[in-house]
Amino acid sequence: MKIIVTGGAGFIGGNFVYYELKNHPEDEIICLDKLTYAGNLETLEEAMKNPKFKFVKADIADRDAVYKLFREEKPDIVVNFAAESHVDRSIENPEIFLKTNILGTQVLMDACREFGITRYHQVSTDEVYGDLPLDRPDLFFTETTPIHTSSPYSASKASADLLVLAYHRTFKLPVSITRCSNNYGPYHFPEKLIPLIISRALADEPLPVYGKGENVRDWLYVEDHCAAIDLVMRKGRVGEVYNIGGHNEKSNLEVVKTILKQLDKPESLITYVTDRPGHDMRYAIDPTKIHDELGWLPQTKFEDGIRQTIDWYLNHKEWWQNILSGDYQNYFDKMYGERLD
Length: 341
Ligand code: NAD
Ligand code: TYD
Description:
Blueprint: E1 2-6, H1 11-23, E2 28-33, E3 53-57, H2 63-73, E4 77-80, H3 87-92, H4 95-115, E5 119-125, H5 152-171, E6 175-180, E7 183-184, H6 193-202, E8 207-210, E9 216-218, E10 220-221, H7 222-235, E11 240-244, E12 249-251, H8 252-263, E13 270-273, H9 288-294, H10 302-315, H11 317-324, H12 328-336
Parallel strand pairs: 1-2, 1-4, 2-3, 4-5, 5-6, 6-11, 7-10, 8-13
Antiparallel strand pairs: 9-12
């Protein structure tokens, strides 16, 4: 089988490339990635040595480039990770989120219609459901929870999901969608909470916690997410949405304190900063459907996953230090400069 993985030079897509090469060595993987600030070829260094893997630099919203690739490669499956993925950036500048996340999805699906595929899989997020209140721990997102978005990022992902379902209904495109909770693990770009805290704590720098740090996220180890996507794209029912999450809710403050404890760094590094506008309070996934239909269960407990993640960052300093020394530093100064003063 030939699989196009878009966004494979990013965090989850990169982990997914390695998951596929390891678990399905018979399949060919073609990574299509624009290499935005979030895409990093160093992540794919090992994969490049595998003859079953190929990298193509292109924008998913570039119709000519996408059609050319489909014409040449005739993929069986397309799995779309490519996206602008950071909520804070979407608040600063929504436009590229609409272009990549919505129009890019459309171009990919048009190519699937034109050249024929067995499955188009859309990697989506629990953020399309909006948020849940802190005082209702009995509530969870199910696949039938109404779409109710808060940020330009989540609105763009929800728009793409609706378009994917419309292409199924109208054009009979064989699609599936997974909506996952927050991931953590290796190759996570250090603008996101967990790698940001690890990298800054190691440098004894102030750790920006938004608001009171009470917001809750449902953390899932990235390999568990990859296993779930692999199952759904191969065996999930066409036209269906599957939620993915591991019942692993933690407040941001709990996460930050866990990392500080493991790194043996003082809690005095925590610095409360102005909250994110429209900040979602709590995400929590009910993963019953994927468990009942496909037998998926997360394998990694948070305590083990966070330890492995911290070890990975300790052992791969060059990977993230290269990022921090480049363009990202300008972004950090712009976003946090005044908030951390
Ligand atoms: P990321 O920002 O780390 O990586 C995104 C990748 O997409 C990068 O390699 C980037 O170069 C590429 N890309 C961006 N625009 C592109 C374009 N126009 N054409 C081609 N490539 C482009 O993102 P991530 O955290 O790995 O997220 C991957 C997917 O999973 C996204 O669709 C995101 O919405 C979804 N998701 C993420 C999480 C999470 O916790 N990170 C949770 C649920 C769902
Ligand atoms: P993030 O990693 O950006 O993921 P998302 O917003 O998609 O859930 O943020 C996770 C949580 O951490 C979120 O509640 C915002 C918070 N946060 C901070 O408190 N400080 C930070 O510097 C960042 C990046 C996030």
